[in-house]
């Protein structure tokens, strides 16, 4: 479902990079040893993230599953000041996705921030959500709650509006605010009773 939404949302040119087939880990030490945070939906979409010839090697490595190699190539583009404006934002977004997949949430947050802070960019909305998710998983639940609040204000009909409910709920669990967390989980369940994560969410509510 999210993959299709992303395909409709993003309208770049011709080069499609298939993102890693497995979602980033949802591990977190914040919520206890028995049950970690809900797996926030990161079904691998197809994103037209890069198109310029300079990116071809990085994209090829990314498509082949060489995330470390792709990351090195993309970082070299940024450090060499070879990309600017729209292209630079797209490099940051892909770097953020790679970092999240490799469970380097601090770097993912930093990359997604570089996209989210743009005044206008097609990737600004997804970057805002993924930044909040990364901040939760790197141990900054209050920041994640604030960022999801900003997301709701900026995109009241946003694609990731309901996913932010789960991010906020897990953040409240991390802070010990179980009543607030339960209310957010229940709100998500009411909206998505058939969600594939429903069993995990019910366990979270029961905690």
In short:
The protein contains ten helices and two strands. By secondary structure, the protein is an all-alpha fold.
Topology:
Blueprint: H1 2-9, E1 17-18, E2 46-47, H2 56-63, H3 67-79, H4 85-101, H5 105-116, H6 124-137, H7 141-154, H8 161-174, H9 178-191, H10 198-206
Antiparallel strand pairs: 1-2
Helix pairs in contact: 2-3, 3-4, 4-5, 5-6, 6-7, 6-8, 7-8, 8-9, 9-10
Task: Give a verbal description of the structure.
The protein has 207 residues and is mainly α. The chain has helices at 2-9, 56-63, 67-79, 85-101, 105-116, 124-137, 141-154, 161-174, 178-191, 198-206; strands at 17-18, 46-47. The chain has a two-stranded antiparallel ribbon with strand order 1-2. Helix 6 (124-137) packs parallel to helix 8 (161-174). The longest helix is centred in the middle third of the chain and has 17 residues, at 85-101. It is elongated, with a radius of gyration of 17 Å. Residues 1-36 and 42-51 have low confidence and may be disordered.
Radius of gyration (CA) equals: 17 Å
Average pLDDT works out at 76
Strand order of the largest sheet: 1-2
- Report low-confidence residues grouped into runs of 5 or more: 1-36, 42-51
- Oligomeric state of this protein: single chain
β-strand number: 2
- Distance N to C terminus: 29 Å
Major sheet description: 2 strands, antiparallel
Number of helices: 10
Amount of helix: 55-70%
% residues in beta strands? under 5%
SSE order, one letter for each helix or strand: HEEHHHHHHHHH
Structural class: mainly alpha
The 3D shape can be described as elongated
